[in-house]
Design brief:
single chain; 312 residues; alpha+beta; lpxc deacetylase, domain 1; 7-stranded mixed sheet; globular; binds zinc ion
Length: 312
Amino acid sequence: MNFYQHTLQRSTSSTGIGLHSGKKINLVLRPAEPDTGIVFKRTDLSGSPLIPGDVYNVVDTHFCTTLAQNNVTVSTVEHLLSALYAMGVDNAIVETDAPEIPIMDGSSAPFLLLLRYAGLARQNKLRQFYIVKREVTIQDNDRFVKIIPASEELSVDFSIAFSHPAIREQRLRFLLSSENYVREISKARTFGFLADMQKLHENGLALGGSLKNAVVMDDFNVINKEGLRFKDEFVRHKILDFVGDLALIGRPVLGHFVVHKSGHDLNNRLFRKFLADSTAWQLVNPQQLNVPEYGNLQSLCPQPPLTVGLSR
Ligand SMILES: [Zn+2]
């Protein structure tokens, strides 16, 4: 367990393509003071307005998560947020010169590489943790998200069910640690269907979406030449997205999630319902937890062989 807040050791930058615009975007990650949280900064607009990463700033969840404050928006934030949360980065400024974060290869692995270059710095302020005190559920027909008290760990049991023959039913129980995340989740790419993508392109949407940043399926098969990175890459990406949505709570959460066929919209509704019910959680300092502190900061930022480039 990582007791203290962390930020980046140094600023680091990258470029990538915007999913919506198809244009090149410059991304800079900068260290930030304790208790800042993850704050997005639109450097393309006058005054470089800020948009805090917060569950209450989510304004749109159609095929990515969009945040807004004072009518300034930033889209496609979830994969970067997922990487930051999984690596235990509490405070950072994320600068982008576009209304979105680059899609990179459709996973969060390129952002992990960026964090590895930035390094992590421990700050002189303790983290506070949300402990789940009682079950909270949100349901929408057969889709649901449930949070259950758990013994001082964060785990997600995610299941999906698609009629598409390349997906079908997939289920994975994931115990969050930075090491597990790097190994099991970070490389899983977003996915979509060729027919939907063609429709979006015709309407001038998702212009950056391509086989370079998504697993794409025709009526029967995955059409990417390289195939899948995992047999069950789809459910792994859903967990990647879930961790990114969870990051918007702003503090580490210790509980067990059971999730079925959920997406960004339902995830966000569950987090809002959870936070609004003060009997469902308790904020605690790490000394109140019965867990050891990490002795070695390196364990927060593991360095496995990452095979994904920083920019394209
Ligand atoms: Zn995603």
